[in-house]
Amino acid sequence: MSDLLERLRGRGWRMTAQRRVVAEVLDGEHVHLTADEVHARAVAKLPEISRATVYNTLGELVSLGEVLEVATDQRAKRYDPNAHRPHHHLVCARCGAIRDVHPTGNPLADLPDSERYGFTVSDVEVTYRGICPNCAAA
Amino acid sequence: MSDLLERLRGRGWRMTAQRRVVAEVLDGEHVHLTADEVHARAVAKLPEISRATVYNTLGELVSLGEVLEVATDQRAKRYDPNAHRPHHHLVCARCGAIRDVHPTGNPLADLPDSERYGFTVSDVEVTYRGICPNCAAA
DNA sequence: CCCTACAATAGACATTGTCTAAGTCAAGCC
DNA sequence: GGCTTGACTTAGACAATGTCTATTGTAGGG
């Protein structure tokens, strides 16, 4: 559970009630929450936490590489606590649900030099889109 | 150039000065503009066009399948007039520049059934990220 | 040349995120 | 344990992007 808290403490992170709560929310959820959802859950545990603090803390966690920012829709960034295993995403076009997926193959190898236009390419994101079983049933 | 206008007219699109201007802006640019950039260029040709009209028209063009919405950063949607040839994107992490690319391989085939979680998967977006030659030089 | 339905407009509103100035507190030090 | 200090938190203003509504305008058919 609190490997995350341990790691952060070990890196000299000043531990406050607010930061602990945000880290716990992320650590406890295996879904990909928006900043607002994180805030809502954090408020449930610590009513006086402010929106700015949640944004700040999420930003710090991203900088530290403990959490990934995911942009699968335009509406809001989502935060992915699974930062330590590379993966891609499968998104429901209707309800926005996200699952982590691990496709085979290496898309980086699929981009020939002639298509790189002099860029130094360092990363690929693959987003699969479709309809989830729930939405298909409805 | 105005295959686009022709096609739209043929589909019963009611032609107005505003719509023509928006279509022309997209048709003339080979870059990927944000809604605001489209608006700015449209205003240059037709000063009294409103922001809402630009948003409406872009939305209609997307619905008609004449233009693609691209979400490479979180800030603003970008509109890609190259809707008729499938392609992916290469984005500069520093300045946001976008190039269309055509990788080999088919990422859809790289997602095994066991990783589909019952979704009906219909589409894949691949976004390569890196640093463009300009930014690398700076 | 008129109607009428569809389109455009201005501006309010909503959502998401950022910034600032002031107050508060964790953690090191004695 | 009790200071001190700089980092952290807060409320709320602000910014960027996008949506909605009520009103006015107009394209295109008769």
Biggest chain-to-chain interface with counts: A-B, 38 and 38 residues
Overall geometric form of chain A: globular
Number of strands of chain A: 6
Helix run count of chain A: 5
Unreliable residue runs of chain A: none
Quaternary form: homodimer
Structural class of chain A: alpha+beta
What's the arrangement of strands in the largest beta sheet of chain A?
Answer: 1-3-2
Q: Between the first and last Cα atoms of chain A, what is the distance in angstroms?
A: 36 Å
Approximately what portion of the residues of chain A adopt beta-strand conformation?
Answer: 15-25%
What would you report as the Rg of chain A, rounded to the nearest angstrom? Answer: 17 Å
Task: Describe the main β-sheet of chain A briefly.
Answer: 3 strands, antiparallel
Attribute tags:
homodimer, 138 residues, alpha+beta, three-stranded antiparallel beta sheet, three-stranded mixed beta sheet, 36% helix, DNA-binding
